[in-house]
Amino acid sequence: MALPRFGFKNAGSFEEAVESLKACGGKVKVISGGTDLLHGFKDNIYKEYPEMIVNLRSIPDAEGIEKTENGVRIKGLTTLHELESSELLKEGWNVLAEAAYNVASPQIRNNSTIGGNICQEPRCWYYRNVDGLFNCLRKGGSFCNAQTGRNEIHSIFGSMKVKDTPCQESCPAGNAIPEYFAKLRSGDEKAAAEILLQTNPLAAVTGRICPHTCMGGCNRNNVDESVAIRSVEGTVGDYMLAHSDELMNRIKPATGKKAAVIGAGPAGLAAAYFLRLEGHAVVVFEQMDKVGGMMRYGIPSYRLSDEVLDRQVNAFEKMGIEFRTGVKVGEDITLKTLRQDYDAVFLGTGAWSPVSIRLDGEEYTIPALQLLRETAMGKRVKPGEDVIVIGGGNVAVDAAMVSRRLGAKRVRMICLESREQMPAFEDDIHDALEDGVEIIPTWGPDKVLVEDGKIKGLEMIRCTSTRDAQGRFSPVYDREQRQTFEADSIILAVGQKADLSYIDPDLGITGRIVAVEEETQKTAVAGLYAGGESASGPSSVVKAMAAGKRAAASMNEYLGGTAKACTCTANSCKELNRFHRSCLECSKAGVVEKYPQAEYSFAHEDAKGFTKEQAQEEINRCFNCGCVAVNPSDLAPALIALDAVVETTERKIDAEKFFTVGVQSSTVLNKGEIVTGVLLPEAKENTKSCYMKFRRRKSIDFPLLSTAVSVTMDGGKVTDARIVLGAVAPVPLRMREAEQYLIGKELTEETALETAKAALKDALPLRENIYKIQVTRTYLKRALLQCR
């Protein structure tokens, strides 16, 4: 196709080029040779194209090789032809001259520059596919097509993370799922628990009842079935509770500040936990007799047992968090008093008050949360023989299942939505159906039929739609379509709201929820924060917990603590991702074993949870998502072998730290940062270096693998070595263990072979590139022997 139209500007200096880049943001690209960038334009591989190209080749005095006091300086626009022809480089830095000679063809080497070569983008065919058919990770997508697709030219040492994985992005708490899975794969349960605790102190809870949106984002869905993340999380959560004394005791020195938390549900508990870690004194006020909020009194014990909650609360108490139960704020103590006695206050009250739909005969119905709460408190009375539950959400499902387990012979759920549109979690709906609950979708209640003060049935009308054109809840009914169901009990589960009557009127907080800043959970009142259902309306445990964590971070700053700033940049802090090779094959997700249905009761959870073996099998299914495209630069391994330093318009970077993976990037360069040169240290005496490259054709082709070696010898034995492999991983790899093995030895055939084996011992090939291991071993051995 024809190149897209763009402006073109010749830069007069690097400073001018940087100004152009910063002035136009991401809509400007620099060009230093053109062999990489323009081909990408021509093939239409990008989703967006720059409006302006800034030419660096017009910058005067920006190319050339010069000897310095401490070695050699190569200017950023020096061509590869100059490098391969340089007698200076051949004297002591020969590996770089050889690497330049091996690039492509003479025509390309005459135009390509050292700066452009080390900044080039990956050569993966999914990334370079004409017309950009694949929105892979390196283009900002969510999946590396090559990991399970065509991968004969790709990494044999794992992948590298480009950005947060889809599972992590889909998790409201932001759990670092790949990171703690990696620790579990290596057998380090403690490290896995420590990682998960950074975002989720309630993993034993969420590992049982979370809606697992992370699993909807899992990239295994592109292949077979999602990894069963929730079940694995449950095993880690149980480990946390079993080792809470060791894991949950890293509390900072006391600050002298006090925080009050109102409500001991997931939002309040999370806020209390993270505030306590910062050294603040925390007191939690709870109106019920036991801690847990909706987790204890709204979620049936066969899904989340009291024993798990009791252990969770016990762990928090050992941290020094104080719980005052049976205290109702607004009656036993006022919010005004708490604000006077404490330095900051968090409102974490749940949505407990039922919502009225003004149904004729509604006063004869049972609020769903009342049934669930009374059942949790031990009052287990059958609501009726023939029960109708009105509603299609999670509370409705729980009420229906509880009714069945309390002895109701027939339970029907009536909901406005279609079966596919029901707001309840799919797993819960499946469990309800398995329990014998009938679901009758697209019908709405019109009238409760009552005779002599007792319910006799429900008259219903057809619901034709639940949302208007803007997506707002606005049900439409066809009143000509009616049907009547007999029933002796009707449970209303159509929503609930937070009771905010305890909030002092003079604070100006009105409405059904407390208005807060989304990122900080701050209210309009200084020192007052809110989260969970009091600020969002009915929600999930994990969302409420995430809100509590955000609030704690903001409250900590308010109380004089420091914000936890991430020192990582988008293209830094990268390590190679390991995965189990079995993940490359199709497999079924693990299934949690349940008790036989005849043994279902309120005394224990239905699910037994994953065994350790099941959890390990499931962890091994994880792709540990990252990019497996290799760094294609010939010069990169040579520069690392020479301990080179890359100069930019902002800083100096060790060559080994210069390369990484990012969206349309292979370096750690910031936006607006340009390579201006490369520094080579003084050549060592008695040192020889060599570059070798394996490719399909002698010219043009990029390396399928390459090796850059530098060996210093004294008295026939190796005293220092640099061994760097290229095109075998997302970044060039310096093989330190192999270097250490070589030192102190004579460079014989046997030593060279064993060194090559040491370099490849951690190889992790994909389906189609196992050949790379043997070829790399052979080429590395040859390169070492050439340095004798």
Please give a structural write-up.
31% of the residues lie in helices and 20% in strands. It is elongated, with a radius of gyration of 32 Å. The relative contact order is 0.13. The strands form 9 sheets. It has a 5-stranded antiparallel β-sheet with strand order 4-5-27-23-24. The chain contains 30 helices and 31 strands. Helix 16 packs parallel to helix 24, helix 20 (368-376) packs across helix 21 and helix 29 (749-760) packs across helix 30 (771-786). The two termini are 50 Å apart.
Keywords:
31% helix; alpha/beta; 788 residues; 20% strand; 31 strands; elongated; 5-stranded parallel sheet; 5-stranded antiparallel sheet
Number of strands: 31
Beta-strand proportion: 15-25%
| Class by SSE composition | alpha/beta
Please tell me what the overall shape is.
elongated
Strand order of the largest sheet: 4-5-27-23-24
Amino- and carboxy-terminal Cα gap? 50 Å
Mean pLDDT: 94
**Proportion of residues in helical segments:** 25-40%
- As a whole number of angstroms, the C-alpha radius of gyration is 32 Å
What is the number of helices? 30
Low-confidence stretches: 566-573
| Largest beta-sheet characterization | 5 strands, antiparallel
Short recap of the structure:
This protein has 30 helices and 31 strands.
Helices, strands, pairings?
Layout: E1 7-10, H1 14-23, E2 28-31, H2 37-42, E3 52-55, E4 65-68, E5 71-75, H3 80-85, H4 87-92, H5 94-101, H6 106-111, H7 114-118, H8 145-148, E6 159-160, H9 166-170, H10 177-185, H11 189-197, H12 203-209, H13 213-217, H14 229-242, H15 244-247, E7 258-262, H16 266-277, E8 281-286, H17 294-297, H18 306-318, E9 322-325, H19 335-341, E10 344-347, E11 353-354, E12 366-367, H20 368-376, E13 386-390, H21 394-405, E14 410-414, H22 426-434, E15 438-440, E16 443-451, E17 454-467, E18 473-486, E19 489-492, E20 496-497, E21 528-530, H23 533-536, H24 541-558, E22 576-577, H25 612-620, H26 635-641, E23 645-648, E24 652-654, H27 655-658, E25 659-662, E26 665-667, E27 675-681, E28 687-694, E29 705-714, E30 717-726, E31 733-734, H28 736-742, H29 749-760, H30 771-786
Helix pairs in contact: 5-26, 10-11, 11-14, 12-14, 14-25, 16-24, 20-21, 21-22, 28-29, 29-30
